[in-house]
Amino acid sequence: MSVNGGPRGGKLRCTRKRTLAMIGGVLILIIALTVGLCVGLSGDGNGVSEQQDVPVFSIDHQANTFLLNGQPFRYVSGSFHYFRALPDAWRNRLRTMRAAGLNALDTYVEWSLHNPHDGVYNWEGIADVVKFLEIAQEEDFYIILRPGPYICAERDNGGLPHWLFTKYPDIKVRTNDPNYIAEVGKWYEQLMPRLKHLFIGNGGKIIMVQVENEYGAFNACDHDYLNWLRDETDKYVENKALMFTVDIPNERMHCGKIDNVFATTDFGIDRVYEIDNIWKLLRGVQPTGPLVNSEFYPGWLTHWQETNQRRDGQVVANALKTILSYNASVNLYMFFGGTNFGFTAGANYDLDGSVGYTADITSYDYDAVMDEAGGVTQKYELVKQVIGEVLELPDINLNPAKRLAYGKVELTPALELLSAEGRAALSKGTPVTSDKPKSFEELDQYSGLLLYETTLPSFDLDPTLLQVDDLRDRAHVFVDQQLVGTLSREARIYALPLSKGWGSTLQLLVENQGRVNYDRANDTKGIFGQVTLQLHNGGALPLDNWTTTGYPLEAYTVEAWRQRQTEMNTALAPSIAQQRLLRSGPILYTGSFQVTEVGDTYLNVAGWGKGVAYVNGFNLGRYWPLAGPQITLYVPNELLKVGQNSLVLLEYQRCNKTLNGAELPAVQFDAVAQLDGQSGEAQK
C-alpha cells in the first residue's frame, strides 16, 4: 500500500513490500499480489492496509474519487486549531461543527507551542494535541492533520520556534539547510510517534497528513527539501494515511508539488467565478484523483488599524454549493477560528512595499462559520443547509455557554514597569551589556518587551534627530524615564527629535507585535542596524554601549507579582497614579470582580491605549482599542470561577481615567463582542 499521490508512487512503494512476499512464492503470485494491493484495492495504492479489518483510505484515479473501505468517499471538513480554544471547550466546539454535517476535521500542529525552547517540549493543557484528536475521533470526525512544520495560520513566525534563530542566526528555514532539516527531524521524532495510533491504517481516523504548507508561495522552490520532508513524514506515517500538499492556484503550483504526494489547492469566494480555471491549474500538477479545495475561506483575517474583514453568509453558502457541484472535497478555513491568546498572533508583510508590516489582531473570529466563542451564526445555518444536501446531518443537541455581562471593574495602578520594583518583578534575569542592541532571539525571548538603554552624548544641534534603523516593531522613546515619542514599523516612523536638557539616559522600550507568519522566512525582533544622532555637518553619530533588559511578560510571572502585590497591598504614589497619559512608562493595573454565574464574557477596554490583559493568571492577548477594530477581548467561561476573579492590565500608553480624576480607571465585562469598532459586532 502507499500514501503517495499517483500510481507511479504507489507501485514503487509496493515493490519494496514485494520482497517480503517472495518466501516460497512464485512470480505470477507476486505480480498478482502487487496488482491487488496497488491497483485493484485502492486505484493508485494510496493508504491501502494489509489488514482487511482496518479501514482503508485511498484514491481511485480512474473514477477521480477517494475510497473509504473501498467505497467512494467525499469529505466536507472544517478547520479548528486546538491551540485557539481552551481544552475544556474542545468537545463543545467539535460537537457544534459535527452538528453542521461536517464529516472531517482539519487542524494544524504548531511546532512553536510544543517546543518553546531548544530541547523543551510541552504536551499538556492547550498543547495536548493527542487528547484533542482523540476527542475529535469520539465526536465521529475523520481527521486531516497538517503538521507543517511551517503552518502560517496567522500565528507568530508561522508556527516556527523563535529559538531556531537564536541557535542558528543564519538559518534558512523551509529549505534543505542542514541545520533546519536536522531540527525538523528532531521535532518529528518527538511528535509523530505520539500520533501513530491515530492513523487510519492503525485503526484511528487520521486519513490525510500534509507535507509542508503552501510551499509554492515561498520563494525557495527547493525540491531537495520537499523530497526530504516527504520521506521524513512517511517514515512515521508508514503508508497508514494519505500524504498531500496544499497550494495557491497559480503558476507557481509546481514549486509546491512533491513527487508521489497528492496535490490539492485552496481558494475563497473571491475566486469561485474562475473555478474551472482553478481546477485546470490543479490538473496541471495532479492530473487525476479527486478535486480538493483544502482551504475554502468563509471569512478572512484582520489586522490592527484596518476595517474588520466580513464575508456575506449567503455568498459563502452559494460558493460552497458551487464547489460541491464538482463532486469536490472541501475544507472550510476557518469553520471555528477562536482566539490568538497571549502573544501568539502573527503579522503580515507586503513585499511590494505598498503596505509594509501589519500585525494581526488577537481575535481569530475570522468571520468564520462559528463565532469566536464557538456560537452558531446565521452563516452557520446557511452553510449547514448546503452541507445537508450532500451529507447526512446528525441529530445533535447543542448546549451553548451563556454570554454574561459582569459590568464595571475599577482598576488600581500598582506598578511602574520601568521602576526598580518593576524590573525586579518582571524582567528576565540580569540585563545584558553590549556594543549593539541585542535582539529578542539573541536573548532567547519569545515576545513581550525589550528595554534598550544607553547614555546620551552631548550633541551640537538642538534639537537633533534620533534615527533607529530597522526597528521591529514599535518603540516608546524615553529620556530619563520621561516619554518623548513613539517610533513604529507599521507607520514607518523611525526618527524623532531630541532636545538638549531633556536628560542623559536614552531608553527605547521595544514591543514585539508579532512575527510575520506568511512568506517572510525570518522576522527577528528588536533593533537592528544603527541608532544614531544627527550631527551639525549632516553626518550621523552612532550610539553604542547598550544595556538590554528583557520583559517576557509571561503569565506566570505577572500572576506571581499580582499575588505578592495583593498580600503587600502596595500602591503607586499619587503623582503617578493620577496619570492619564503614561509619561513615565507602562503601568500595571489590578482589579477583581465577583462572579455568581459562570459564562463567556468580553473584556471591554474602550478608552485605554495599548497593552496586554490577564484574567486569573491567563494571558488573554494584546489589546489596542485606539487602533481598532477589535475593542473587546474574549474571556472563555472556562477561565472563570464562582467568587472573586482577578484582572491585570499592563497598559503601555494611556488609561481611560477621566480628566477630573474623581474615579479610578475602569474596564467592563460585556455580553457582546465588539470586533468592528465601537459600533458593535456585525451580523454574520
Automatic annotation (TrEMBL):
Coiled-coil boundaries: none
InterPro entries associated with the record: B-gal_1-like, BetaGal1-like_ABD1, BetaGal_gal-bd, Galactose-bd-like_sf, GH, Gly_Hdrlase_35_cat, Glycoside_Hdrlase_35
Protein family per UniProt: Belongs to the glycosyl hydrolase 35 family.
GO molecular-function term, one example from the UniProt record: beta-galactosidase activity
Glycoside hydrolase 35 catalytic domain sequence ranges: 65-389
Keywords: Glycoprotein, Glycosidase, Hydrolase, Membrane, Signal, Transmembrane, Transmembrane helix
Active site: E214 (proton donor), E295 (nucleophile)
EC code: 3.2.1.23
Transmembrane portions of the chain: 20-42
Domain Beta-galactosidase galactose-binding, residue spans: 586-645
Gene3D superfamilies in alphabetical order: Galactose-binding domain-like, Glycosidases
SUPFAM superfamilies (UniProt xref): (Trans)glycosidases, Galactose-binding domain-like
Any GO BP annotation: carbohydrate metabolic process
Enzyme class: hydrolase
Residue span(s) of domain Beta-galactosidase 1-like first all-beta: 437-536
Domain of life: Eukaryota
Name the UniProt record assigns to this protein: Uncharacterized protein
